[in-house]
Design brief:
The complex is a heterodimer. By secondary structure, chain A is of the alpha/beta class. Chain A is about 25% helix and about 25% strand. Chain A has two domains: about 200 residues, Ribonuclease Z/Hydroxyacylglutathione hydrolase-like (Metallo-beta-lactamase, Chain A), CATH 3.60.15.10; about 130 residues, 3-Layer(aba) Sandwich (Rossmann fold). The radius of gyration of chain A is 20 Å and the shape is globular. Helices cover about 35% and strands about 20% of the residues of chain B. Chain B has 19 helices and 20 strands. In chain B, strands 12, 13, 14, 15, 16, 17 and 20 form a seven-stranded antiparallel β-sheet that branches. In chain B, strands 3, 4, 5, 6, 7 and 8 form a six-stranded mixed β-sheet that branches. In chain B, strands 1-11-10-2-9 form a five-stranded mixed β-sheet, with no helix packed on it. Classes of the chains: A alpha/beta, B alpha+beta.
Chain lengths: ~350, ~550
Amino acid sequence: MVTEPEDLIVERPEGLYCPAGDFYIDPWRAVDRAVITHAHADHARPGHRRVLATAHSEPVLRARLGRLSMQGLAYGEVVDHHGVRVSLHPAGHVLGSAQVRLEHHGRVWVASGDYYLSSHDEPNPTCAAFEPVACDCFVTESTFGLPLYRWQPPSDVFAQINDWWRRNAGRQRASVMAAYSFGKAQHLLAGVDASIGPIWVHRSVEAMNQACAAAGLSLPPTRPLESAASGDELAGALVIAPPQTLGGDLAPLLSGAAKAFASGWTQLRSGRRRRGFDCGFALSDHADWPGLQRAIAATGAERVIVTHGQEAVMVRWLNEQGLRAQTFSTEYGDIDDGEPATAVAQA
Amino acid sequence: MKSFAELVTRLEDATDDAQRIDALCAYWSAVPAADAAWALRLLAGRGIGRRLEPGALREATCRAAGIEPWLFDACVDASGDWAETVAHTLPPAARPIDEPLAHWLGCELSAYEDAEPGVNAAQALRRCAVLDTMSRELLLRLLLGRWRRLASDALLQRSLSRHAGVDGRLLALRWPAWLHPRARPDASRWTALLRSEPACDAERVLPHPFAPVEMIDGDAAAIAARLGDASQWVVHEWWGGERAQLVRRDAGCACWPARDGERSLVPAAQAAQAASGLPPDTVVEGEWAQAGGPAGQSPPGAAPRWMFRISDVLELAGRDLRALPALQRVAAARELACRALLLAGTPQQVDDWFALGTRWAGGRSHGVDALRLMRRAAAYGTPRALFDWRTPAWRATVLLQSAEHVADADGQACIELGLALWNRRPADHAAVQRALAAAQTGERLAAASAQLVPIAKLRVAARQGGNDDDPLGAGWSDWLREATVQRFGPVRWLRVQRACEIAFDAAVPTRRRRSGIELRGARFLRWCDGVDAAAVDDLPSLHERVRIDRS
């Protein structure tokens, strides 16, 4: 990407860099100073000397990254670093997720990280809802940057999930929901009808639940999946585990269970049967197309830099709408496959 | 409409027939007869013909969604499906309506008669504006003429049989009339379909339940290990024809194919002629074969003449023989042979598995598809008393030339692979490169040149995303995208470099293909990623190795 001399954020091999402040945002290589937008593994990598993030994300970051020299900020709290005023604002993606606002010599840039916004006013109950921040340049993700991604209200999706669980429970079958251990798992726990049956979770989910509880999030009670003696014990239950753990040792325990995947990718038929799941539920923690357009418009930014996802589509679309749009090439994805540091140590 | 859309979702998400039948039975119980009648017809794959032009729909959708055509095309690329793309791209309905399926289909479709494409597209989008997303998708798929089967006839019949308590054989008999293109589904016809008593003479001529046949592969040692003492078995050549029962009763004659829900390949007149050769109140089982011997073929242009090879007698002159040992039943078959269109099978006692295996090692060369093994002392229908020992299939190494996502007769997603081999062995590397380049563009080289000719198209069940268990292997989807040279609609022409091994049951001559032969029963075995394109099979060597069935 062609940068301008006064750009507050530029691309570097290590990640997105603020030259004026001499720090990185969500770098994918170890650096001296990093501002972390949220604790998903593609944004929060280990090895940085000093980290700035929201106070809400601190327990999860420490659980995932281990020992960490970290300063936790409240939403809206401002710190000044080398003349750059840095503040963190809710992104609505996962617990503690933040947009990073940078202000320097009258210019304001906002790096969104991953965020959730839709045409429905049903924010993710596990985190603070997205707040648009006025800026001159908005660095936005574009994971679901196509017009055919429009989310149903999450309440409708949870009604479908509950129906599916109830049907399986009626046939004495376990319902296995594949969901990443941080973010999606807690969103599911906060939305399902816990009266249908017991809920069992993988140890990586339990570790994240405990970290979220330390940050003040309240979730329904769960049982550790590793303590289930046999598949019979799971009959009628809901099981939440990361997709990559469903094979291997868990396969015999979960054979015969109904398996579903909770992800925005399952909105399309081609995404519903991926990886051998029986069905999918389009529950996403990312902005859909209307949400992306709303967020960009709400910032008032005349310049937009698009990161990971449908970059080419979004850039062309935004340019046609009269904005100045470009891309940053990043190493972010929408897959969170990080294991908590404690679980890794025990393994 | 909404409940039909939910049924479709449940059928697509189901992983076994039990779930599909549960979903179908719940639907039949919940909706009025008129809706059920239309739903049955749609589930069986009967659409309504194209009423929408894709181009007009694209224009109208872009206007309604406020997007440019290039963005619509990007969405189609991501989804791979026009109906799904439009359904999701349009703004959601503020308050979706839910009308009965029969009412909606009856009223809605007439609006599209004899109208301009743009008018039809506008009408379709007005309707979509008040429907939920799944209902939109189904409507658009119908109107675009891209409706596909959502359940097999056998599954639908099983669900109806369970729902209404009607004999599945009666449903099978009534099925073709139900699905006739001019038959309009309505409540009265639905009631007639599910009547539990036979309604006519033909419905009184029902077959006996077919005994299960297990397939068995392997050499003689494997057969011996599985089936034990050879002297306990009777062997009978199976020519790969259509297994069926012929029934003759006072009420009439009938031919019943073994495969549920499928119509017989044999013309009704020939089937009736064969059945009429039986004594009254007689039921026999066997296979239909074309006159001329195993895998026989009638001269081009002539209608095939069928013969029924009797392999078992289930009922003879009113006497139920099913409880008798197989040896006695097949003996009765010889008495019935040589009547109209009836042949006796050639059951023989088995002395030794190894001798049998040696004698029939070249079975496929003689058109024998399998050896049917019957436990000589077993009654008809006894489990594990009837096996088909399949003769080894022919094999060939071919090149992948094209791929297309399609839906099979059951509505399941498949990938259709277009395969090719050399018409003659290339002389050198340059000739190989010329031919490969020509294959990618569809160019035909001079007749004397070595070039690739299409040899078969076969289908493999598709699994999105790919994993190591997929027959096409992990990474297939990524490879397919990378290897696509150009697209003609849904067909992808590929960089011709990847070899695979296929199996097939027979090769017959045909003028309809450039290769001059048609492979029957072709199926994908495995990739041969270490095989160079120049090393795959060619027609001359295939002719040497494989018996081309000419008759």
